[in-house]
Every structure is written in C-alpha cells, then in structure tokens.
Amino acid sequence: MDVNNQQKGAESSERKDRICQSIRKVGNRLGIEISPEMLDLSVTYIEELLRWNKAFNLVGRRLDLEGVLLLFLDSLTPLMMKGVFSEGVEVLDIGSGAGMPGIPLYLIGGPFPLTMAETQRKRVTFLRHICRKLGLSRAYVYPGRIEEMRKHEDYMSFFDVGLARAVMDPMKLLGIAGPLISEGGKLVLFVGSSDGERLRRGASGLEKRGWRMESLRSTQRYVGRDNYLAILKKTS
After folding, report:
1. DSSP state at residue 75
2. Phi and psi at residue 92, in whole multiples of 5°?
3. Which of 140-144, 175-179, 201-205 has maximum average pLDDT?
4. CB-based contacts of 69, cutoff 8 Å, min separation 6
5. Closest by CA position to 93, among listed 161, 28, 36
6. CATH architecture of 2-234
7. Measured distance CA(156)–CA(158) in Å, rounded
8. What are the residues whose beta carbons fall under 8 Å from the beta carbon of 182, sequence distance 6 or more?
9. Closest Cα to residue 78, out of 91, 59, 97, 66?
10. What angle is formed at CA 33 by the lines to CA 27 and CA 35, rounded to 5 degrees?
11. pLDDT in tens, 81-120
12. How far apart are the first and last CA of the chain?
C-alpha cells in the first residue's frame, strides 16, 4: 500500500511539474508573469477536468493530460493582445464547453467579469462546480444558448469581448452573437487557416454587417500549433 501511495504521489508531482513548466513557458512567450497562485489554480482546474472527463466525457474521453494541457495553453493565446482583458471588461465565452477558453484566460489574465454560455447539463454542472472550487467570484454560468440570451434586454450590447472556439461558422456566429457585443467591442475567434483566410477575403462583407477585421494572427509561436486568432471589432 505504501509503495502504491508513493508511486501515486510521484506521478501527481510529475504531472503538476509538467503543467507548471508548460504554463510558465507559454507565459514567457506571451510576456506574462505567472504567479504561484495562478499555477496552483491552473493545476487544480486541469486535474479536476481530467477527473470529471473520465466519468462524464466533457471534452472527449480520449484526451489525456497532454491533450487537455494543450487546450488550456491554446486558450491563453488571446493574451497576446495587451489590454483587452482588463479588470472591468465584460467577457462572454460562447459555447464554453468545460470552460475553455474562458477559465484559463480568467486564471492567467484576470480576474474579469466572465459569463460562460453552455447548453449541455453535465458541462454546466462541471462549470458551476469548478467556479466554486477555484473561488472564481466574478465568473457566471449561463445554462443556455446565446440565441436565448438575446431575449433578455439586459444582455443586448452588454459584453465588451466575445470568445468562440469551434462553435459554428464564423459568419453565422456574427449574426447570432453580434447583438450581444457592445459597439467598439471585440469578437475573438479561434479559427483554422481556411476560416481565417475566408474572413480576411470577406472583409467588405464584414463591414456591411458592422464589423471590421482588426487582425488575424497565428498562434504557432506561442503553442506550436498553426491555428489563428481572428480579432473582429464591432463598428456599429
């Protein structure tokens, strides 16, 4: 029993070291100082997500530590945009899933007011659990679709920043989520190269919808994956 406990303890320590080293490395590339508290909360989040994922398949049962860690690190890449995630900025995570990208951004780039919209009950339960466990006092879970949010006048033009990763076609997303973003606010879209190029080519169409492509930036130098962040600004 003692041998098993020692082995489990060593594996846990190894896992924690792996997570912390990876977050520090990406933090350095982003020019962000990572505090011990940030690391502790991040480790707890990742380990808790791995535990829940085995039981409830929140992000795909095939994802191991490396897969979940990569999702976490990828979630941090919007922090390359300095000043976007300041303390008073209202952030909407559209189709939050198990909390990414919203929770990693909150832990490393926050705190800021964060609303995570998610429809699946098991994910909503996990999000509420992890917010309590980590003490994320400024994070809120909206258990429904963003189309439903539009029925509430208080949410219209309320959010300064919207986040979306692999939710739906980017142009369709603009039509659905656009009314929730304030004028001058931004939509940060995690996209592949083809969707990114399509958005770039469709700049005139974006302008007709009241949006402007602010930037399209590769995340490869930060996390080693050739994905892109499309930053769209609402102009009207």
Report:
1. H
2. -115, 120
3. 140-144
4. 18, 19, 22, 46
5. 161
6. 3-Layer(aba) Sandwich (3.40)
7. 5
8. 157, 158, 159, 160, 234
9. 91
10. 105
11. 888 888 889 999 999 999 999 999 999 999 999 999 999 9
12. 65
Compute the radius of gyration of the chain from its Cα atoms.
18
Q: Is 210 exposed, middle or buried (0-12, 13-18, 19+ CB in 10 A)?
A: middle
Contact 73, 23 (CB under 8 A): yes
Q: Which amino acid does the sequence have at 50?
A: L
Q: Which residues pair with 139 in a beta bridge?
A: 114
DSSP class of residue 138 equals: T
d(CA 51, CA 199): 37
pLDDT tens-digit map of 149-200: 999 999 999 999 999 997 788 888 999 999 999 999 999 999 988 888 888 8
Domain regions of the chain by residue span: 2-234
The answer to whether 98 and 59 have CB atoms below 8 angstroms apart is yes
Residue 79 contacts residue 162 (beta carbons within 8 Å): no
Q: Whose structure tokens read 């535990």?
A: 51
Look up tokens 């940060």; give the residue: 188
DSSP string for residues in 143-192: -S-HHHHTTSGGGTT-EEEEEEESSS-HHHHHHHHGGGEEEEEEEEEEE-
User: For residues 193 and 197, what is the distance between their CA atoms, to the nearest angstrom?
Assistant: 6
Q: Angle at the Cα of 104 (from 123 to 156), degrees rounded to 5? A: 70
Compute the distance between CA of residue 134 and CA of residue 45 in angstroms, rounded to an integer.
8
Distance CA 38, CA 108 (A): 6
CA-based max dimension of the chain: 67
Write out the two tokens for 151.
Answer: 């029925």
